[in-house]
Specification:
Length: 157
């Protein structure tokens, strides 16, 4: 690859993600949840009633790790497990009112972080950035279903 700045792509994407995550964790830390717990909570709110095994796939972590996260979050009143009506072996995960309220608040905080991260870019540049990152994800997904890229602040979290 010609050294026209493109050789830094991986480092730039990694550093941007790390810094966004760091800011988000700083703002969201008041709830006492780890980054992994926040990821789980967001997924459960967005995919209410998701099967525990599917949650592990979506979060790309081992099922035993998801089970431990769910145990801690259930003890804290963040989520609840329910048996699937058609298959008692399947555990469905639902958000509680506590997690729905926290999610609503954290969406606003995420919007603040994104506003800071995107300061100095006009709307066209912001949309181009999201489209470009979505294309990169699609190109590298090997047939995996990529996460939906939301371009509006209302879908920030």
């Amino acid at each position: 690859m010609v050294s026209d700045g493109l050789d830094r792509l991986g480092f730039l994407v990694h550093d941007a993600a790390r810094l966004i995550r760091k800011r988000f964790e700083g703002k969201g830390g008041a709830y006492g949840l780890s980054a992994a717990q926040w990821r789980l909570l967001v997924r459960v709110v967005k995919d209410e009633g998701v099967a525990q095994a599917r949650l592990a796939e979506l979060l790309e972590i081992e099922p035993i790790s998801v089970s431990r996260l769910i145990d801690r979050m259930e003890e804290g009143g963040w989520i609840e497990r329910r048996q699937d009506a058609s298959d008692r072996r399947v555990r469905m995960i639902f958000p509680t009112e506590k997690s729905l309220q926290a999610f609503a608040e954290i969406k606003g905080m995420a919007g603040e972080v994104y506003d800071l991260a995107l300061a100095g870019l006009n709307n066209d540049e912001k949309h181009t950035l999201v489209k470009a990152l979505s294309t990169i994800i699609t190109n590298l997904s090997d047939g995996e279903a990529p996460a939906q890229a939301n371009t509006t602040k209302g879908n920030a979290a």
